[in-house]
Protein backbone atom coordinates (compact mmCIF):
# COMPACT_ATOMS: atom_id res chain seq x y z
CA UNK A 1 0.00 0.00 0.00
CA UNK A 2 2.82 2.41 0.90
CA UNK A 3 4.48 1.93 -2.49
CA UNK A 4 1.13 2.43 -4.23
CA UNK A 5 0.49 5.72 -2.39
CA UNK A 6 4.02 6.89 -3.17
CA UNK A 7 3.47 6.19 -6.88
CA UNK A 8 0.34 8.36 -6.75
CA UNK A 9 2.27 11.13 -4.99
CA UNK A 10 5.07 10.94 -7.53
CA UNK A 11 2.58 11.42 -10.35
CA UNK A 12 1.02 14.54 -8.81
CA UNK A 13 3.50 17.07 -10.29
CA UNK A 14 2.75 15.81 -13.80
CA UNK A 15 -0.99 15.94 -13.21
CA UNK A 16 -0.77 19.45 -11.78
CA UNK A 17 1.53 20.57 -14.61
CA UNK A 18 -1.31 19.71 -16.99
CA UNK A 19 -3.62 21.92 -14.95
CA UNK A 20 -1.09 24.77 -15.03
CA UNK A 21 -1.00 24.79 -18.80
CA UNK A 22 -4.76 24.59 -19.26
CA UNK A 23 -5.95 27.52 -21.38
CA UNK A 24 -9.45 27.22 -19.96
CA UNK A 25 -8.40 27.63 -16.32
CA UNK A 26 -10.88 29.85 -14.45
CA UNK A 27 -9.74 31.24 -11.07
CA UNK A 28 -12.21 30.95 -8.22
CA UNK A 29 -11.00 34.05 -6.35
CA UNK A 30 -8.65 37.02 -6.61
CA UNK A 31 -6.09 35.17 -4.50
CA UNK A 32 -6.41 32.12 -6.75
CA UNK A 33 -5.86 34.27 -9.85
CA UNK A 34 -2.77 35.87 -8.28
CA UNK A 35 -1.37 32.46 -7.36
CA UNK A 36 -1.91 31.09 -10.85
CA UNK A 37 -0.50 34.21 -12.50
CA UNK A 38 2.68 34.19 -10.39
CA UNK A 39 3.27 30.47 -9.92
CA UNK A 40 1.35 28.73 -12.69
CA UNK A 41 -0.61 26.65 -10.19
CA UNK A 42 -4.03 27.13 -8.60
CA UNK A 43 -4.47 27.39 -4.84
CA UNK A 44 -6.24 24.04 -4.86
CA UNK A 45 -3.37 22.33 -6.67
CA UNK A 46 -0.88 24.12 -4.47
CA UNK A 47 -2.73 22.80 -1.44
CA UNK A 48 -2.26 19.25 -2.75
CA UNK A 49 1.48 19.85 -3.11
CA UNK A 50 1.69 21.37 0.37
CA UNK A 51 0.07 18.27 1.82
CA UNK A 52 2.45 16.09 -0.18
CA UNK A 53 5.38 18.06 1.23
CA UNK A 54 4.00 17.70 4.75
CA UNK A 55 3.54 13.95 4.34
CA UNK A 56 7.04 13.54 2.90
CA UNK A 57 8.54 15.48 5.81
CA UNK A 58 6.61 13.54 8.44
CA UNK A 59 8.20 10.34 7.19
CA UNK A 60 11.49 11.49 8.72
CA UNK A 61 10.83 14.35 11.20
CA UNK A 62 8.23 15.77 13.53
CA UNK A 63 7.34 19.17 12.07
CA UNK A 64 7.45 21.78 14.86
CA UNK A 65 3.97 23.36 15.26
CA UNK A 66 5.22 26.88 14.53
CA UNK A 67 6.14 25.78 11.00
CA UNK A 68 2.59 25.86 9.74
CA UNK A 69 0.95 25.62 6.34
CA UNK A 70 2.22 29.08 5.40
CA UNK A 71 5.79 28.05 6.17
CA UNK A 72 5.55 24.97 3.98
CA UNK A 73 4.01 27.05 1.21
CA UNK A 74 6.91 29.50 1.28
CA UNK A 75 9.47 26.71 0.98
CA UNK A 76 7.47 25.05 -1.78
CA UNK A 77 7.26 28.29 -3.76
CA UNK A 78 10.96 28.96 -3.22
CA UNK A 79 11.66 25.70 -5.02
CA UNK A 80 9.08 26.29 -7.77
CA UNK A 81 6.75 23.64 -6.37
CA UNK A 82 9.36 20.89 -6.59
CA UNK A 83 8.39 18.84 -3.52
CA UNK A 84 11.71 16.98 -3.25
CA UNK A 85 13.71 20.22 -3.45
CA UNK A 86 11.41 21.95 -0.95
CA UNK A 87 11.77 19.01 1.44
CA UNK A 88 15.57 19.19 1.27
CA UNK A 89 15.48 22.95 1.83
CA UNK A 90 13.14 22.65 4.81
CA UNK A 91 15.17 19.89 6.46
CA UNK A 92 18.31 21.99 6.03
CA UNK A 93 16.50 24.87 7.74
CA UNK A 94 15.41 22.71 10.69
CA UNK A 95 19.06 21.70 11.19
CA UNK A 96 20.21 25.32 10.95
CA UNK A 97 17.54 26.53 13.38
CA UNK A 98 18.66 24.00 15.98
CA UNK A 99 22.34 24.88 15.56
CA UNK A 100 21.77 28.66 15.47
CA UNK A 101 19.14 28.75 18.20
CA UNK A 102 16.58 30.48 16.00
CA UNK A 103 13.63 29.05 17.94
CA UNK A 104 14.80 30.85 21.09
CA UNK A 105 16.26 34.02 19.60
CA UNK A 106 13.17 36.12 20.41
CA UNK A 107 13.39 35.18 24.08
CA UNK A 108 17.12 34.74 24.62
CA UNK A 109 18.85 37.42 22.54
CA UNK A 110 19.02 40.89 24.06
CA UNK A 111 20.28 43.55 21.66
CA UNK A 112 21.21 46.39 23.97
CA UNK A 113 22.90 48.17 21.08
CA UNK A 114 19.58 48.79 19.34
CA UNK A 115 19.70 52.64 19.68
CA UNK A 116 23.13 52.73 18.04
CA UNK A 117 22.03 50.24 15.40
CA UNK A 118 19.01 52.42 14.52
CA UNK A 119 21.31 55.43 14.16
CA UNK A 120 24.05 53.86 12.07
CA UNK A 121 22.07 51.12 10.23
CA UNK A 122 18.65 52.69 9.58
CA UNK A 123 16.05 50.14 8.52
CA UNK A 124 12.78 48.67 9.74
CA UNK A 125 9.08 48.16 9.08
CA UNK A 126 7.18 51.42 8.63
CA UNK A 127 3.41 51.28 8.14
CA UNK A 128 1.63 49.15 5.56
CA UNK A 129 1.02 49.34 1.82
CA UNK A 130 -2.41 49.66 0.24
CA UNK A 131 -2.89 45.87 0.44
CA UNK A 132 -2.03 45.77 4.14
CA UNK A 133 1.50 44.41 3.75
CA UNK A 134 4.18 45.81 6.08
CA UNK A 135 6.59 48.19 4.37
CA UNK A 136 10.22 47.42 5.17
CA UNK A 137 12.41 50.50 4.64
CA UNK A 138 16.15 50.26 3.99
CA UNK A 139 18.51 53.25 3.72
CA UNK A 140 21.91 51.79 2.76
CA UNK A 141 23.27 55.25 1.99
CA UNK A 142 23.02 56.14 5.69
CA UNK A 143 24.77 53.01 6.96
CA UNK A 144 27.98 53.69 8.88
CA UNK A 145 29.49 50.38 9.94
CA UNK A 146 32.69 51.98 11.15
CA UNK A 147 30.71 53.84 13.81
CA UNK A 148 28.31 50.95 14.47
CA UNK A 149 31.10 48.47 15.14
CA UNK A 150 32.32 50.68 17.96
CA UNK A 151 29.23 49.50 19.84
CA UNK A 152 28.64 45.98 18.53
CA UNK A 153 29.94 43.25 16.22
CA UNK A 154 29.00 41.84 12.84
CA UNK A 155 27.87 38.57 14.45
CA UNK A 156 25.49 40.35 16.82
CA UNK A 157 24.07 42.45 13.98
CA UNK A 158 23.38 39.29 11.98
CA UNK A 159 21.75 37.64 15.01
CA UNK A 160 19.62 40.76 15.48
CA UNK A 161 18.50 40.40 11.86
CA UNK A 162 17.46 36.79 12.54
CA UNK A 163 15.56 37.98 15.61
CA UNK A 164 13.76 40.56 13.46
CA UNK A 165 12.85 37.90 10.90
CA UNK A 166 11.36 35.80 13.70
CA UNK A 167 9.49 38.87 14.96
CA UNK A 168 8.15 39.44 11.45
CA UNK A 169 6.84 35.87 11.16
CA UNK A 170 5.45 35.66 14.69
CA UNK A 171 4.10 39.19 15.20
CA UNK A 172 4.29 41.64 12.31
CA UNK A 173 2.75 39.51 9.54
CA UNK A 174 -0.01 38.09 11.82
CA UNK A 175 -0.83 41.60 13.10
CA UNK A 176 -1.09 42.88 9.54
CA UNK A 177 -3.34 39.91 8.72
CA UNK A 178 -5.66 40.80 11.60
CA UNK A 179 -5.76 44.46 10.55
CA UNK A 180 -6.40 43.65 6.88
CA UNK A 181 -8.84 40.80 7.53
CA UNK A 182 -6.96 38.68 5.02
CA UNK A 183 -3.73 36.76 4.77
CA UNK A 184 -0.61 38.94 4.82
CA UNK A 185 2.57 36.89 4.71
CA UNK A 186 4.86 39.06 2.59
CA UNK A 187 6.26 42.57 2.82
CA UNK A 188 6.94 45.42 0.43
CA UNK A 189 10.62 46.39 0.65
CA UNK A 190 11.43 50.05 -0.01
CA UNK A 191 15.13 50.62 -0.74
CA UNK A 192 16.32 54.23 -0.74
CA UNK A 193 19.64 54.50 -2.60
CA UNK A 194 20.13 58.18 -1.76
CA UNK A 195 23.78 58.67 -0.79
CA UNK A 196 24.94 55.25 -1.95
CA UNK A 197 28.34 55.40 -3.61
CA UNK A 198 31.64 53.59 -3.88
CA UNK A 199 32.47 54.59 -0.29
CA UNK A 200 29.35 52.74 0.91
CA UNK A 201 30.45 49.40 -0.53
CA UNK A 202 33.18 48.65 1.99
CA UNK A 203 34.39 45.13 2.72
CA UNK A 204 32.47 45.20 6.03
CA UNK A 205 29.29 46.25 4.22
CA UNK A 206 29.64 43.52 1.61
CA UNK A 207 30.35 40.91 4.28
CA UNK A 208 27.33 41.66 6.44
CA UNK A 209 24.98 41.95 3.45
CA UNK A 210 26.24 38.64 2.09
CA UNK A 211 25.66 36.87 5.41
CA UNK A 212 22.17 38.32 5.83
CA UNK A 213 21.14 37.48 2.27
CA UNK A 214 22.54 33.98 2.60
CA UNK A 215 20.45 33.33 5.72
CA UNK A 216 17.31 34.85 4.22
CA UNK A 217 17.54 32.93 0.96
CA UNK A 218 18.22 29.61 2.68
CA UNK A 219 15.96 29.84 5.71
CA UNK A 220 13.42 32.68 5.29
CA UNK A 221 12.27 32.32 1.67
CA UNK A 222 9.45 34.19 -0.04
CA UNK A 223 8.87 36.85 2.60
CA UNK A 224 9.18 39.69 0.08
CA UNK A 225 6.29 40.56 -2.24
CA UNK A 226 8.07 43.33 -4.13
CA UNK A 227 11.18 45.47 -3.80
CA UNK A 228 10.79 49.12 -4.81
CA UNK A 229 13.94 51.16 -5.36
CA UNK A 230 13.98 54.95 -5.17
CA UNK A 231 16.70 57.56 -5.66
CA UNK A 232 18.60 55.17 -7.91
CA UNK A 233 21.61 56.79 -9.61
CA UNK A 234 21.75 56.75 -13.41
CA UNK A 235 24.48 54.10 -13.40
CA UNK A 236 22.23 51.76 -11.43
CA UNK A 237 19.30 52.31 -13.80
CA UNK A 238 21.47 51.49 -16.81
CA UNK A 239 22.85 48.37 -15.13
CA UNK A 240 19.37 47.21 -14.07
CA UNK A 241 18.03 47.80 -17.56
CA UNK A 242 20.61 45.36 -18.91
CA UNK A 243 20.48 42.78 -16.12
CA UNK A 244 16.74 42.41 -15.55
CA UNK A 245 16.12 40.62 -18.84
CA UNK A 246 18.57 37.93 -17.76
CA UNK A 247 16.36 37.15 -14.76
CA UNK A 248 13.25 34.99 -14.69
CA UNK A 249 9.87 36.70 -14.96
CA UNK A 250 9.02 36.30 -11.27
CA UNK A 251 12.22 38.06 -10.21
CA UNK A 252 11.66 40.87 -12.73
CA UNK A 253 8.17 41.46 -11.36
CA UNK A 254 9.47 41.57 -7.79
CA UNK A 255 11.94 44.41 -8.40
CA UNK A 256 10.80 47.83 -9.57
CA UNK A 257 13.04 50.86 -10.00
CA UNK A 258 10.97 54.04 -9.81
CA UNK A 259 11.69 57.12 -11.91
CA UNK A 260 12.77 60.53 -10.65
CA UNK A 261 9.05 61.17 -10.06
CA UNK A 262 9.09 58.44 -7.42
CA UNK A 263 7.10 60.31 -4.75
CA UNK A 264 3.97 60.26 -6.88
CA UNK A 265 4.61 56.71 -8.10
CA UNK A 266 5.25 55.47 -4.57
CA UNK A 267 1.78 56.53 -3.46
CA UNK A 268 0.28 54.08 -5.94
CA UNK A 269 1.54 51.41 -3.54
CA UNK A 270 1.47 53.18 -0.17
CA UNK A 271 -1.06 55.71 1.16
CA UNK A 272 0.37 59.08 2.33
CA UNK A 273 -0.57 58.46 5.97
CA UNK A 274 1.59 55.32 5.91
CA UNK A 275 4.65 57.14 4.56
CA UNK A 276 7.11 59.33 6.46
CA UNK A 277 7.30 62.95 5.37
CA UNK A 278 10.74 62.46 3.83
CA UNK A 279 9.11 60.15 1.26
CA UNK A 280 6.23 62.47 0.41
CA UNK A 281 3.91 61.12 3.08
CA UNK A 282 2.11 62.76 5.97
CA UNK A 283 3.20 60.57 8.88
CA UNK A 284 5.51 62.44 11.27
CA UNK A 285 6.85 59.31 13.01
CA UNK A 286 10.58 58.73 12.44
CA UNK A 287 11.92 55.40 11.16
CA UNK A 288 13.24 54.20 14.55
CA UNK A 289 9.70 54.54 15.99
CA UNK A 290 7.44 53.52 13.08
CA UNK A 291 3.67 53.05 13.03
CA UNK A 292 2.04 49.73 12.19
CA UNK A 293 -0.64 47.24 13.28
CA UNK A 294 2.00 45.34 15.25
CA UNK A 295 2.16 48.30 17.67
CA UNK A 296 -1.60 48.30 18.35
CA UNK A 297 -2.24 46.50 21.69
CA UNK A 298 -5.74 45.40 20.64
CA UNK A 299 -4.44 43.84 17.42
CA UNK A 300 -1.47 42.24 19.17
CA UNK A 301 -3.93 40.61 21.57
CA UNK A 302 -5.92 39.22 18.64
CA UNK A 303 -2.80 37.72 17.08
CA UNK A 304 -2.99 34.99 19.71
CA UNK A 305 -6.32 33.88 18.18
CA UNK A 306 -4.70 32.97 14.86
CA UNK A 307 -4.64 29.22 14.43
CA UNK A 308 -1.21 27.63 14.50
CA UNK A 309 -1.82 25.71 11.27
CA UNK A 310 -2.19 28.93 9.31
CA UNK A 311 -5.83 28.28 8.39
CA UNK A 312 -6.63 31.97 8.96
CA UNK A 313 -4.78 32.75 5.78
CA UNK A 314 -6.68 30.20 3.73
CA UNK A 315 -10.21 31.24 4.60
CA UNK A 316 -12.29 32.51 1.69
UniProtKB/TrEMBL annotation:
Superkingdom assignment: Eukaryota
An example Gene Ontology cellular component term from the record? Answer: Golgi membrane
| Residue intervals of the CRAL-TRIO domain | 113-287
Q: Where in the cell is it found?
A: Cell membrane; Golgi apparatus membrane
In what way does this protein cross or attach to the membrane? Peripheral membrane protein
Q: InterPro entries from the entry?
A: CRAL-TRIO_dom, CRAL-TRIO_dom_sf, CRAL/TRIO_N_dom, CRAL/TRIO_N_dom_sf, PI/PC_transfer
Principal localisation: membrane
> Belongs to which family?
Belongs to the SFH family.
* Name of the molecule in the record: CRAL-TRIO domain-containing protein
Q: Which organism does this sequence originate in? A: Auxenochlorella protothecoides
Lineage of the species this protein comes from: Eukaryota, Viridiplantae, Chlorophyta, core chlorophytes, Trebouxiophyceae
Amino acid sequence: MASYLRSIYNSLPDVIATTRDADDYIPVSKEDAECFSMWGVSLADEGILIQQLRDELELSVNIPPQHNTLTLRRFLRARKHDVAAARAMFLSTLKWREEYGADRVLQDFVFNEKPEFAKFYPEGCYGVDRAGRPVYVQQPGNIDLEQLFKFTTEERCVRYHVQQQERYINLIAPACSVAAGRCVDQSLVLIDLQGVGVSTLTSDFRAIVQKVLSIDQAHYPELMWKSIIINAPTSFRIMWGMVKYMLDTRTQVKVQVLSSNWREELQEYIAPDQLPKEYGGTNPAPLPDPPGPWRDPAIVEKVAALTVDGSFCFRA
